[in-house]
Amino acid sequence: MPTRAFLTVDTELMWRHHAAGLPIAEIAERSLEPAGVGIGYQLRRFAEHGLKATFFVDPMPAVAYGLDPIRRVVDAILAAGQEVQLHLHPNWAAARENDRSAAASFELIDFTFAEQRELIRAASDLLVAAGAPRPVAFRSGSYSASDDTLAALAELGIRYDSSHNGSEHPWPSAIGLPPRQIAPVAHRDVIEVPVTLIEDVRGHLRHFQICALSTAEMRDALDHAVSAGHAAVTIVSHGFELANRAGTRPNAVHVARFDALCAMLADRRAGLETVHFADLTHLPLDHDDAPLGPSVIRTRVRQAQQLWSNLVSERAA
Questions:
Q1: Which InterPro entries match (predicted)?
Q2: Which of 209, 217, 108 is nearest to 167 (CA)?
C-alpha cells in the first residue's frame, strides 16, 4: 500500500492584519490571496500536478466580520475539487471589528474541556454555514491541542485530528503522545495524524512545513517515508506562507519550495498517494515510523536559504 500523503494548508485571516486596523477587504487579500501566491495559486498548482489537498479553514473571524470572507474561500476550495476541514484560532471568539484589542486567549489549551468543546462546536457550525460539509478532521491553530481537545472532538463526532507536532511539544502542542510520534495512532477516541518531523541536527526535531524545511530536506523526508514504508506523511503550508509577512510580495524561496514539493509529490505518486480525510476508508495505525535522521549539509543549505529569504524576500516592497 502506498504511503498516504496529507497535503494540508492552514487557511485563516491573519490576526496581525486585524490588530493593525486594516479594512476587512485588505485583511482577506493579504491573508488568503497575498501577492498572487495565495489560495488561488496553490489550488492551480495542485490541479496541474493532480494532487489532493486538505484546506483547514478557520471560520472564527466571522464573529467580527461575518461569513462572507469565509464563504468565498470555502467556495473556491470546493469548486477546485479539494476538501475543507476545520481549523480554529480561539482568540477570534471575542474579536470585534470596531475594537481591535478585544481577543480571547490565543491558545486552545488555555480553555477547559467544556470551553474547548463549545469553541469547536461553534466553529464547526460556522464552517458549515459558510458552505462546507460537516468536518471530519481538525487542526488547532498553532498546533495548540491537548488530550481534552481530542476528547471534545470525539464527543462532537470529528474523527481525525492533525494537531500533534513534536517540534512544538509539550507547549503549545500538548497532546499526550511522544514528541517523535509521526505515525497515525488511535488516541482518546480519535485518530491522531501527526505532522511529519525530521531531525535537522541530532536530538532536534523540525516539522514538515514549507517555511521550515528546504527543498532538499523535503525531498529526503519524502523518500525516507516511502523507502521505510511509513503509514503517512503530513505536510503543512498556509494560505499566506508563499508571500512575505506583510502579504505584499512573493517570498521567492517559499514559492520555489512549494513548486518543487508539488513536482516531487507528482513524481512519487506510485509510492506516495495524496488523500483527503473525508475519503479515507482505511488508515494503517500503530506503525513504528521514525523521523528522517540529521544531515549537516541539508541543514546548512536551508539556513543559507533562510538567511537570503530574511534579507531579501521579507524586505518591505
A1: Glyco_hydro/deAcase_b/a-brl (IPR011330)
A2: 209
Q: For the chain, list the strands marked E by DSSP.
A: 3-11, 54-57, 83-88, 137-140, 160-161, 185-187, 190-192, 197-201, 204-207, 232-238, 272-274
Query: Distance between CA atoms of 209 and 232, rounded to whole angstroms?
Result: 15
Cβ atoms of 238 and 15 within 8 Å: the answer is no
DSSP one-letter string for 9-33: EEE---HHHHHTT--HHHHHHHHHS
User: Residue 304: which residues within 8 A CB-CB, separation 6 or more?
Assistant: none
Q: Pairing state of beta strands 197-201 and 204-207?
A: antiparallel
Pairing of strands 3-11, 54-57: parallel
List pLDDT tens digits, range 197-246: 999 888 999 999 998 999 999 999 999 999 999 999 999 999 999 999 99
Q: Is the backbone peptide bond immediately before 178 cis, with ω within 30 degrees of 0? A: no
pLDDT for residue 297 is more than 70: no
Residue 98 is placed in which grid cell?
470596531
Calculate mean pLDDT across residues 160-185: 98
Secondary structure of 130-183 as H, E, C letters: CCCCCCCEEEEHHHCECHHHHHHHHHCCCCEECCCCHHHCCCCECCCCCCCCCC
Q: How many CB atoms lie within 10 A of CB 171?
A: 11
38 — alpha (psi -120 to 50), left (phi > 0) or beta?
beta
pLDDT at residue 85, as a whole number: 99
Bridging pattern class, strands 3-11 and 232-238: parallel
275 within 8 A of 268, measured Cβ to Cβ: no
Cα separation of 160 and 157, whole Å?
Answer: 9
